[in-house]
Each structure stands twice: as structure tokens, then as C-alpha cells.
Amino acid sequence: MSKLLVTGGCGFIGSNFVRHLLQTDPTVSIINLDALTYAGNLANLADLAGHPRYQFVRGDITDRDAVRKVMKLGVTEVINFAAESHVDRSIHDSGPFVLTNVLGTQTLLDAAREFQVSKYVQVSTDEVYGSLGATGYFTEETPLAPNSPYSASKAGADALVRAYYHTFGLPAVITRCSNNYGPYQFPEKLIPLFVTNLLADLQVPVYGDGQQVRDWIHVLDHCTGVEAAWRKGRPGEVYNFGGRCEKTNLDLTHTLLDLLGKPHSLIRYVQDRLGHDRRYAIDCTKAETELGWKPQVPFAEGLRATIRWYEQNTAWVSAIRTGDYLRYYEKQYGQAA
Ligand code: NAD
Ligand code: DAU
Predict the structure, then answer these.
(1) Dist. CA 31–CA 3, nearest whole Å
(2) What global pTM score does this model have?
(3) What is the pLDDT of residue 296?
(4) Most exposed residue of 10, 39, 80, 243, measured as fewest CB within 10 angstroms of its CB?
């Protein structure tokens, strides 16, 4: 029976992963270590309160003592989702990105070594490969060329994971996925920001000319990819995941406006993101052939379901808008951070 340490389980992808795994594998138990930064929301896993195979621990992955304390609970494997994840914030201040993404990963790697876990999975990103021109795809062999402080910090973490495999034989794998969408995504990223703005008849800010391309994948497809990498990934290997679903930001914005029945006049063109990567596109052949993984959720279906989720979860959205969600820990556990 696996006792998994999942870090960052109160964020967007981590919370979807924890729920998915507990629902589909009755033999697994999960400890979720999360610092509850602005991006961590206890409400994302409120439905798991009291679940016999789930335990939440508030703690920071850069805190060696906190991490060792959790490892002593009998952790057999580690999956690291915890990160500062928003590119715009990294442009504003790269400090927290280097701390959590690089130092936090190093701390987890040391603990994984010390407690001799049987697998360590580093959830990385396609952004470490940099930007593509009009053609071509990122493969696992594409050289790393990160362009933002966010992707540079993720690439630094990937380099450490690789080094711990080569130097110490740590059974570690790295996953690199393209842009996720789905329920519980913090409304600072394109899709949840635009959907929640449009539901309130607010404008949507398109950066630059809106011709940047992203490869969209439903969060549950990413979760099954991480699961496959954890179960079947070969130590020392990297696995790319993508949705084979390239869209320009402007096309996607038009689709969102049309699905929500809103006028295109709500588009506001704003100053471009500094160093904005032009195009991401993933070749996920390796994951398909080696791990037997395939993205299952068609974009049109997944996007409609995602919009419906934000329409139906107005309390979740408004608690974020008011900042109330930051007080859930205090309310639930009776003490301040
Ligand atoms: P998120 O920002 O929604 O969640 C991050 C979580 O990590 C939050 O719960 C936060 O509280 C926690 N956290 C942050 N710093 C911490 C620390 N020092 N110690 C403990 N917990 C901490 O992020 P996400 O979008 O769910 O992304 C999860 C992972 O997947 C990240 O590593 C990200 O780089 C990677 N990724 C994201 C995408 C995407 O499209 N969102 C795509 C590919 C890879
Ligand atoms: O590719 C994987 C990455 O995808 C992850 O590693 C990151 O954690 C995740 O945040 C995401 O990064 P992006 O920068 O691609 O996502 P974001 O939603 O911030 O932006 C998507 C595109 O939309 C990007 O080209 C910038 C643009 N954009 C974004 C916002 C928030 C806008 O035009 N307007 C906006 O308001």
C-alpha cells in the first residue's frame, strides 16, 4: 500500500490529482503538504474532510524540519506539485519562485533520499523548453531554454532532480505538461480569469496581439499522466504531456465570448507580457508509447464543462475575490497561520 506525499495539493492541479487518486485507487493513502499561499485553497478539497485515507498538513516545502516530520509518517513516494506557478507574478518578483521552486525541490529531494522513497515525481512544465516558432514541437530531447523567471526556476528544479538521479540513484522522474484548464483553477490564469470576468460582464485583457499559441489540456488528463509517470515511469526519464490542442489566445478568447453569449467588444488589448513566449506545442509520443497514456477529454467538451463549473461555483469564486478563502484554515483548525 502506497503512502504518497503530495505537495501543493491545495492548488489547482494538486487538488484535482488528490481527488482523482483517492476516488480511483482504494489502496493508496495521501498526505497533502501545502503552505497555503495565495494559490492554496482548502475549499478545493473540502469534500475530502474526514476521508480515512487523506491527511492535510500545513507546511512549507522549503522547511527541512517540516518536511522530515511528514516523511516520518511513513511516506513511501513523493509527488511534488508545490510551486509558485504564475508567470506574471514571477516577472513582478522572482524571489518566491527561486525559494519554493528551486530550494523547495532541493529540500524534498534530500528528504526523498534520506527516507529512501521508491519513487519521486517532479511535476514540471513545458515552459522550461522556451518558445517555438510557427512549426515544430517540444520533445523530451529539446534543450532547456527557459525565458521567464518562473520557467527558469522550474528548469533549475529539473536540473536538481536529474542530478539527484545521476549522483545518488534517486528513482526520480520528471513530467512536463502544457497549459491546463478545468475546475478549481485560480482566476489569475487565462481561462478562469476570462470566464469569471465575463460572467460578471467585465472586460478581458488580451496581452499584445493575442497571437501567442498555447497547447491546452484538461487537468484530469494531466492528472492521469502524472499518475502513469508515478506508476510506470522509468527513473531518470522525462515525460511530456500535452493536449494536441493548439489555440491562439485570441481564438480562445473569441470561443469563450461566444460560449458565454457576450459581445466581442469586451476584449481589451493591453500591454504585452515582458518576454512573452510565442508558441508552446508538445509532442507526447513518448508518454503514449511508454506509459500507455493518452489525453481523453475533447477540448470543446472540457471547456463547456469548465465554464459550467465556474457558473455553478460562484461561492468559490467570490471567496477568492473577497479574500475570505485565506481564512479557511483558521476557521477549520482554529489557529492563525
Ligand atoms: P497552483 O499555483 O494552483 O498551486 C500551487 C500550490 O502549491 C498551492 O496550493 C500553494 O499553496 C502550494 N505552495 C506554493 N508554495 C509552497 C511551498 N513553499 N510549500 C508548500 N506548498 C506550496 O499551481 P498549479 O497550476 O496547480 O500547478 C501545480 C504544478 O504543476 C506546478 O509545479 C506547476 O509548475 C506545474 N504545471 C502547471 C501547469 C498549469 O497549466 N497550471 C502546467 C504544467 C505544469
Ligand atoms: O505551459 C504550462 C504553463 O501554463 C504552466 O507551467 C504555468 O504554471 C501556467 O500558468 C501556464 O502558463 P501561461 O503563462 O501559458 O498561462 P497563463 O494562463 O498565464 O497565460 C496563457 C496565455 O494567455 C499567455 O500567452 C498569456 C496570455 N494572457 C494571460 C492572462 C492571464 C493574456 O493574454 N491575458 C491575461 O490576462
Answers:
(1) 7
(2) 0.98
(3) 98
(4) 39
